[in-house]
Design a protein that fits this description.
89 residues, alpha+beta, PH-domain like, globular
């Protein structure tokens, strides 16, 4: 399964980009060259995700390492469905 979502990461401001979801990972990508390489192509393996929480329209993905990344994700309902299908395997 490959699914993509328009989103913005909240990281030193709001940076537009996309979330690309496959069977093993969620990857945030942006074309902004002024952003740290680690954030520009941020891959989060599903096995490394500790939790997904929501505060209104803002999603926060917390990794088992303790790192947290917040996103404004368009089509929240569909993202939740896709995320649950990944984590309920």
């Amino acid at each position: 399964m490959k699914t993509q979502f328009m989103c913005s990461i909240i990281y030193g401001g709001v940076l537009g980009g996309g979330l690309f979801v496959d069977d093993n990972s969620i990857t945030y990508k942006t074309g902004k060259v002024t952003v740290d390489d680690r954030i520009r192509n941020l891959k989060m393996d599903v096995a490394d995700i500790a939790s997904l929480t929501w505060k209104g329209i803002i999603a926060t993905i917390t990794l088992k390492s303790g790192n947290k990344y917040s996103f404004l994700i368009f089509n929240k309902k569909r993202f939740i469905e896709v995320f649950e299908s990944l984590t309920n395997k």
